[in-house]
Specification:
The complex is a heterodimer of chains A (903) and B (621). Chain A has 903 residues and is α/β, with parallel strands linked by helices. Chain A is built from 28 helices and 39 strands. In chain A, a hairpin with a 2-residue loop joins β1 and β2. In chain A, α7 crosses α23 and α8 crosses α24. The chains are: A alpha/beta (903), B alpha/beta (621).
Chain lengths: 903, 621
């Protein structure tokens, strides 16, 4: 340890620390422009200059390491003069458009000038007056206001690893922006916008529309993907103006992706349901809560009387835990039905069922911090950057800065591929075969017969697996200290997804990772609260706390808790619900933000089946196919309006907070259900989301809110916050450094968010014994005929179908394009922007083409968000639930491509 | 088909270098060949073969003066606009060329044949003024023949043979005998003069400690300007684990300096041998010579010399049958003075923008690709064979106690016998200027001296009796640097001098840190106002306060030395400045003072959005 005196305050610090960090530890703010805690210090702005008391030398605190006995002054006449001159230089050519600049009022350059700047100017020269770069649809680059701190370029390189903007020219002529004269083409995460200390980077959506000090700021959790980003929603007069992030805050540490940052506009458009609707003479007519609730209640009461499991419920997995909890208790307690299912059924359930069976929990063994520390990372069947953006950032950082060995197994090139040691580019669908072979080889640890090996070689040849890359991966997995496997959407949507996930679980156990801290499986749920909604028992399998809903003991426990007998039947999921409706055993459907019609090919009879219902209640924000045929449409509040908690992929339980008033007459889901229960004469008596949460916590205390948040160090004038998250000894909890008396101490305020390894371990051993070892199947065909496999993928710029209503995101990605391998396109003379048609035995659909080197020559991809009925018509109609998890199988199909102009 | 062939040749370049990033500069040079600019398609291709984003490639490319990203003329004309050339009629030369072609700086003739660029020292200062057309260098060219010369180029490509430029060493050499003739250009000639004997002995004996001892005794210090004892650098790097890299800094950009060019062109093998010896001592397997873009002839000669050495088994794997391997690569800069700074050079060599790094860490700990790196100047390395051959004591005895050995001095400016001199350190300045250099010609008197190009504080006639060694010069606040002495007679206006020095710093500042980026710009702008006769009394204090801040807070040597000449000229010639500022009058009649149009560098800022700019008035075929 080195003893350093800063402004007379003595601190003991690590000798590798910089003066700036030591000052932070002493609680002394040092102003900065170019310093950013997540990036390597650049030392270029020279505003963090400090004076060494003994040598009288001026050094830059962000790049100068401390030395034992060093005495530092962060403020002195010399330093004041230096900062003053620095600002004088910066402001000489800086335009005087502060009154209209978006940054005015929250501008570190303004603040710093206020603190140190000269009041008179000694030299008048030209003001920068280059034209702004307005070519991008999202960001505007104003070189005139730029002070060349370079944070935007560095965050794009070092944190996002996208390299979309850079320095151009040198010296005073340097400007920052996309390549010469080109339109910005990037992930539009907006991190550059966030870190810019001046108004040099602004965005088109809110330019000149606000004054920062007039905005109300509310921290909340982003409800799109499972990363659990902490963001700040800024509103004026109950309207969202912009979404920002803060350096160091939340598990995202200040980064948010394009969807979180710009996708807020759809909640404030006139298309949103703002009042209840009731069907009258085949038309939906606006109504009121007072009118519709008794109507629905009497209908439900009548059906309830017929027996158990007569009413079905579907719920989206973007709702908070509280709403999911109320949803399942409304169905099980009030409606006597276990015919409930969630939006996770379509994909994530394929992972959740085997994982819960094997580990007893949905919380992961590892989190993002462990990813950074992992020596080996295998990403299989997932594109973390678009599925859970922050997970993607952490994997990138691990590979780039921490030198983790990254392997990617995927048919497509994902954005992580370029950072991977090996990208094993299997044929479409080969991920699963790969995992089965890998798991078998790890299980047998070398005792493999010649027959098995020759079969493996044949499989690898058939599926295009590079055997040497496979060997490298195998050796690395076996020998590494810490390793993590990341799996996602693509793997969960293969033809027999359970086998793939089980292989992963076997690999994890057989490598001894279950008991080894820092190792494990990290799965990416699809929506923001897949984990929370399932933990709350919103699917028919589980009661809250993932207890078996059919097990009398679990049932008894909740009966005791709720003080009422649970009279529900055996129940079922989507498959049983559709079957039950078809057979007339289910007479009513209540859907909270779900629309099953949109998930199935048009010929699948889903609409026909649903039309047999006596009552459909659609609780939603926007019109869709289900609301079109509903008897009642009830307006739901959005995630920006209500409160509750979401469980992130890392297992954090984080709060969403109301940032604006309920839209029109809309209400949060829990309140609608509660009012309905009152109207039905069997009130649930829920007061508020908070009261629901306290009920949940009484019985499931491990779901107490948690986050990785750190304390914030506010720079004197630059408003720079440094995150100092502190992990507890077991790595399971996070706390904050707090000042107590004269010293600093760590307070662990956050409960564990990761799974408990001990309880997972005992459960896993049981599961592993019971699991049968089956040899890898030689070939799994993808349905259909044709030369390509069409795959519906998640886009980086959208989340679900709701964001298609968002004007900002629509501007970034207005339409879905069919991505085709660039070489293939060239060979077949298909040009960018042309139309082609795809044909299967079931239908034909035309697409606009976008050639891309990322797609393999065997597949075509199309963003799932834009997959409307026309696109779905390519898939086999019918209700195929053969996945073994009750999930419908409709994600991939073989197609023929007709490059004749399809108009 | 052609597209694929192009990609193949680009691929080969990528394969030849350590990382894809490192290949970017060679790739850009490759694309410049033939058409003198880099097209969008080129950028896309480079991006494809290197896997870097086009933003990265343009970020690297636009940093360097040599790379152009819009169509320009077939022939690039680069006229030196630094002090040694300007004192010898460079201004007139530039105006003549500009008038002949009918274009200004960074403009292209309507026929698409010529584009005019400023050059920041072509290393021909003893035969100033100089300019370059493509890779052909013209020195002391009769102004009246300029129209004819361009007519030649108009007709077809003129291409000079590659030969060592300039006259031989001007005095009798002690160490640098190789600089007397062009004979040592070839391996055979070098061998005849005991070439590679020192290296062979070292290999045979296998005792690097002894060699370090010899270098320590010789007192040999960094000849690029730093004057840091070489043996200490060698010892420091040997403490760090391999791989270790050896870099020769041949980015001799200081105006008035041309000694390294002489060595590279006349005695390239002494440099290669010096590198081999140094590499052997530090245990390095890979070395680089970073040659500036303005020295195409040096590059060609070195290329040939390296090939010769490789063929003779002196470079490559298991040299001369021993276990020692050393690979030497030539890396071509692209027109950036800042890349002479060691950490900028390393960044440039890694294929990044040539931004200097913050120190510590020192490059002997964290250098090229984060590995321990030894960097030495051309002259230092070329001294090493003689030191080992003749002994450290012999070498030390050549100089005085304070600074042992000899040093190459580049004399330019207003002096009777400009040229390259090898003198023992400790000789008096008077002896160098008045005796060897022949004094000030044309009956004029000495006004001031720039001892280290544009970097050091100036010296006055009263300093003539100073001893030419590092500590003595430092006593008066100046430094010897690379020992490029620019002599100024009484026809030089100090404000005009400061103006050109400021223009140079402003043109060459890398733009990374605020003090230097904005400081050089503002000092330049203030000087533009003063020479236009728009000076204000407060400007003197302003230059001083900006200058002191630059010296205090800049990252690297460029920023800390850039204000030296303006500040020292204010210190020594305050009256002359006041005359300009208070009375808007230039006593020597040099500054335009509103009477004539002032020369100004065109801003390059607009190059950022060149896609939209109608900068050209040419129609490309």
């Amino acid at each position: 340890m080195a003893k350093v005196t800063i402004n007379g305050i003595e601190v003991d610090v690590d000798p590798s620390m910089t003066i700036l960090k030591a000052a932070e530890k002493a609680g002394i703010p040092v102003p900065t422009f170019c310093y950013h805690p997540r990036m390597d210090p650049a030392g270029s702005c020279r505003i963090c200059a400090v004076e060494l008391e003994d040598s009288k030398k001026v050094v830059m605190s962000c790049v100068t390491p401390v030395a034992d006995g060093m005495r530092v002054l962060t403020e002195s006449p010399k330093i004041h003069e230096a900062r003053k001159t620095n600002l004088e230089l910066l402001l000489l050519h800086h335009p005087l458009d502060c009154p209209v600049c978006d940054c005015g009022g929250e501008c570190p350059l303004q603040n710093m000038s206020f603190a140190y700047g000269a009041t008179e100017s000694r030299f008048e020269s030209h003001r920068n007056d280059e034209p702004e770069d307005m070519k991008s649809d999202v960001l505007v680059f104003n070189a005139n206001r730029c002070i060349l701190c370079g944070k935007c370029v560095r965050i794009c390189d070092e944190v996002q690893d996208v390299h979309a903007i850079g320095f151009i020219n040198r010296g005073f002529d340097t400007i920052i922006g996309p390549p010469l004269g080109k339109k910005l083409d990037c992930e539009f995460c907006g991190d550059c916008l966030e870190v810019c200390p001046t108004g040099a980077i602004t965005d088109h959506f809110v330019r000149y529309k606000y004054r920062p000090w007039q905005l109300e700021k509310q921290q909340t959790t982003c409800s799109y993907c499972p990363s659990g980003c902490q963001m700040f929603v800024e509103t004026e007069n109950e309207a969202i103006v912009r979404v920002t992030s803060q350096e160091g805050v939340g598990p995202n540490e200040g980064s948010i992706c394009v969807v979180g940052r710009f996708g807020f506009n759809h909640v404030q458009i006139p298309e949103r349901f703002d009042t209840p609707y009731m069907r009258s003479l085949h038309r939906l007519v606006p109504s009121s809560w007072e009118e519709v609730l008794p109507e629905i209640a009497s209908g439900l009461n009548a059906i309830r009387k017929k027996g158990v499991d007569r009413i079905a419920g579907l719920i989206s997995t973007r709702v908070p835990m509280e709403d999911a909890y109320v949803f399942q208790s409304f169905f099980r307690k009030i409606l006597h039905s276990n015919m409930i299912d969630t939006g996770a059924r379509y994909s994530f359930m394929n992972a959740a069922l085997p994982i819960v069976a094997a580990t007893g929990t949905l919380r992961p063994l590892v989190d993002h911090e462990d990813i950074l520390k992992a020596k080996v990372i295998l990403v299989v069947g997932a594109d973390p950057v678009s599925e859970s953006n922050i997970t993607g950032l952490f994997v990138k950082r691990a590979a780039r800065k921490e030198r983790s060995r990254l392997y990617v197994v995927d048919s497509e090139a994902i954005s992580l591929s370029s950072r991977a040691k090996d990208h094993i580019r299997v044929l479409p669908g080969g991920e699963q075969i790969f995992l089965e072979v890998l798991s078998e080889e790890i299980r047998q640890s070398g005792n493999l017969g010649a027959e098995w090996i020759s079969r493996k070689e044949e499989l690898f040849k058939n599926w295009n697996v590079d055997p040497s890359a496979y060997q490298r991966l195998l050796a690395d997995l076996r020998s590494c200290e810490t390793g993590i496997i990341v799996a996602g959407r693509k793997l969960f949507q293969l033809e027999t997804p359970v086998a793939g996930v089980e292989s992963l679980l076997k690999i994890t156990g057989d490598l001894g990772w279950i008991d080894r801290p820092g190792c494990g499986l990290f799965v990416l749920p699809e929506a923001s609260n897949d984990l929370g909604v399932l933990m709350m028992g919103a699917s028919h399998e589980w009661l809250p706390g993932l207890m078996d809903s059919r097990d009398p003991a679990s049932r008894g426990r909740w009966e005791e808790t709720w003080g009422s007998r649970l009279a529900y039947g055996p129940g079922g999921g989507l498959e049983e619900i559709l079957k039950g409706i078809d057979e007339g055993k289910i007479n009513a459907l209540i859907s909270l933000g779900e629309n099953p019609i949109g998930h199935f090919p048009p010929g699948s009879r889903v609409r026909e089946i649903l039309s047999k219902l006596d009552m459909i209640v659609s609780i939603d924000m926007f019109q869709n196919e289900l609301s079109d045929m509903a008897h009642f449409v009830l307006p739901a509040s959005s995630a920006y309006e209500r409160s509750g908690h979401l469980v992130s992929a890392e297992g954090f339980v984080q709060a969403i907070k109301p940032t604006m008033a309920y839209w029109g007459e809309s209400l949060p889901d829990w309140q609608i259900l509660d009012r309905l229960s009152h109207a039905m004469g069997s009130p649930m008596g829920v007061d508020s989301a908070e009261s629901v949460m306290s009920e949940i916590l009484r019985f499931l205390p491990d779901l107490a809110p948690s986050s990785r948040n750190g304390s914030h160090f506010v720079g004197g004038t630059g408003e720079i916050r440094l995150a100092t998250p502190v992990a507890s000894a077991d790595g399971c909890a996070y706390g904050e450094m707090v000042h107590e008396g004269n010293g600093l101490s760590t307070k662990f305020v956050s409960p564990a968010h990761k799974a408990n390894r001990e309880s997972v371990s005992s459960r896993y051993a049981q599961w592993r014994e019971g699991i049968k070892e089956e040899p890898a199947s030689p070939y799994r065909s993808i349905a259909g005929e044709g030369e390509f496999v069409l795959e519906l993928t998640k886009s980086l710029f959208h989340s679900g179908k709701m964001t298609l209503m968002d004007s900002n995101l629509k501007k970034i990605q207005p339409e879905g394009k069919l991505r085709i391998n660039r070489q293939t396109a060239r060979k077949r003379k298909i040009k960018k922007g042309e139309r082609v048609s795809l044909r299967t035995a079931y239908g034909v659909c035309s697409f606009i083409v976008e050639p891309s080197p990322a797609v393999s020559e065997f597949e075509l991809t199309f963003p799932v968000h834009f997959a409307n009925a026309e696109v779905l018509a390519l898939f086999a109609p019918g209700l195929d639930f053969s996945s073994g998890t009750g999930a419908p199988v409709t994600h991939r199909i073989r197609v023929s491509l007709d490059s004749q102009n399809a108009n | 088909m052609k597209k694929q062939a192009d990609d193949l040749s680009l691929d080969r370049i990528v394969q030849a270098w350590g990382t894809p990033e490192q290949a970017v500069l060679p790739l850009l040079h490759h694309c410049m060949e033939g058409k003198n600019y880099i097209s969008d398609a080129d950028v896309a291709r480079i991006s494809r073969v290197t896997g870097l984003s086009s933003s990265d490639i343009l970020g690297i490319g636009t940093f360097y003066q040599h790379f152009v990203f819009h169509p320009v003329g077939k022939n690039s004309v680069r006229v030196c606009l630094t002090t040694p050339c300007l004192f010898k009629g460079g201004n007139h030369l530039f105006r003549t060329i500009s008038k002949t072609l009918g274009i200004g700086l960074e403009e292209t003739t309507p026929d698409g044949l010529f584009t005019l660029y400023p050059a920041q020292c072509l290393g021909q200062c003893s035969a100033a003024p100089s300019f370059m057309i493509n890779e052909d260098v013209y020195v002391d060219f009769p102004v009246e023949k300029i129209p004819d010369l361009f007519e030649e180029y108009r007709k077809g490509r003129v291409c000079q043979p590659v030969y060592p430029g300039g006259k031989p060493l001007a005095n009798k050499p002690v160490v640098f005998e190789g600089l007397m003739s062009a004979e040592t250009m070839y391996l055979e000639g070098y061998r005849r003069k005991k070439g590679y004997q020192a290296f062979e002995t070292l290999l045979k004996e296998g005792d690097p400690e002894k060699a370090i001892g010899e270098i320590e005794r010789s007192g040999l210090a960094g000849r690029g300007g730093g004057a840091f004892p070489m043996y200490r650098k060698l010892q420091a790097i040997r403490k760090n684990p391999p791989p270790r890299y050896l870099i020769c800094n041949a980015d001799e950009g200081e105006p008035g300096t041309f000694k390294d060019r002489y060595i590279m062109e006349r005695d390239p093998h002494s440099l290669i041998e010096g590198m081999l010896i140094t590499a052997n001592i530090i245990g390095s397997e890979n070395g680089y010579i970073y040659v500036r873009a303005e020295y195409p002839h040096s590059l060609r000669i070195l290329e040939k010399a390296i090939r010769e050495a490789e063929e003779a088994g002196l470079l490559g794997d298991r040299i001369l049958g021993t276990g020692f391997s050393f690979h030497l690569f030539l890396y071509r800069g692209a027109g950036a003075y800042i890349c002479g700074e060691e950490t900028s050079l390393i960044n440039s060599l890694e294929g990044k923008r040539g931004y200097p790094r913050n120190k510590p860490p020192h490059i002997s700990d964290v250098g090229l690709w984060g590995k321990p790196t030894e960097m030495q100047n051309v002259e230092t390395l070329a001294n090493v064979p003689s030191v080992l051959l003749k002994g450290g004591e012999w070498y030390a005895g050549l100089g005085n106690k304070k600074s042992p050995g000899t040093k190459l001095f580049c004399l330019s400016g207003h002096i009777a016998k400009p040229g390259l001199y090898e003198i023992p350190l400790g000789m008096s300045l008077r002896e160098l200027i008045m005796d060897l250099g022949g004094g000030i010609p044309n009956g004029r008197s000495l006004k001031a001296l720039l001892p280290a190009g544009s970097a050091s504080k100036m010296l006055l006639p009263k300093h003539l009796d100073l001893s030419l060694d590092y500590p003595s010069i430092a006593e008066v606040g100046a430094f010897l640097g690379s020992a490029s002495v620019i002599v100024m007679d009484d026809s030089v206006c100090m404000v005009d001098l400061s103006y050109w020095i400021a223009a140079f710093s402003h043109h060459e500042s890398c733009g990374q840190c605020t003090p230097c980026r904005d400081g050089t710009e503002d000092v330049y702008e203030i000087l533009v106002k003063i020479v236009r006769g728009e000076g204000k009394p407060e400007y003197l204090d302003l230059i001083k306060s900006i200058g002191f801040y630059m010296k205090e807070a800049s990252i690297c040597g460029l920023g800390t030395t850039a204000p030296n000449i303006p500040l020292s000229s204010i210190e020594y010639f305050e009256e002359e400045w006041k005359e300009h500022i208070l009375h808007h009058h230039c006593p020597l009649g040099i500054c335009p003072m509103g009477q004539r149009e002032a020369f100004a560098f065109p801003p390059r800022r607009s190059r950022g959005v060149i896609g939209d700019l109608p900068l050209l008035n040419i129609s490309m075929p």
